[in-house]
Amino acid sequence: MGELPFLFKVLCAAQPLSIQVHPNKRASEEGFARENAAGIPLSAAERNYKDPNHKPELVFALTPFLAMNAFREFSEIVTLLQPVASAHPAIGAFLQQPDATHLSQLFASLLNMQGEEKAKALQVLRDVLAREQGEPWQTIRLIAEFYPDDSGLFSPLLLNVVKLNPGEAMFLFAETPHAYLQGWRWR
């Protein structure tokens, strides 16, 4: 019996879902083989690779739909980070040298904050939210309604916020950070 080259889903995001990054085809094949060789059952919760396929996604909006997809242009990120520059040292490093290496370090640093470092950064963000309007600040407010203490609240400053109307679609490449925030869609 043959396999379909895609997985079809109808999904509803009543609240923002986690940021994801899907591996490319080669990494998927290697990860699947590695987990099989390690004897990890396909149904195991700790298994990352349920099959050898990569997972690029085509999203078709069924209702008004909000998502984040891929990193913004460096110049746009620099502008958006200015008001929160004091939140974390990695922001300052990126602002001084806005390149892929510093963006990767910034994203990882923000998502992995804990304790006092996280509390300070989120307080700076909350203070800025009190005076900033429009996007991406409104998206940050939406996420904060559900996850007020999540360091992922900085993500809309780094990732493109995408609003789709019913019938519109977007493609998500492998190795691209993304998150579904609100709405129904086919995937």
UniProtKB/TrEMBL annotation:
Gene3D superfamilies assigned: Jelly Rolls, Phosphomannose Isomerase, domain 2
EC number: 5.3.1.8
Limits of the Phosphomannose isomerase type I helical insertion domain: 80-159
Presence of keyword Membrane: no
Single GO MF descriptor: zinc ion binding
Protein family membership: Belongs to the mannose-6-phosphate isomerase type 1 family.
Identification of the protein by name: mannose-6-phosphate isomerase
Gene: manA_2
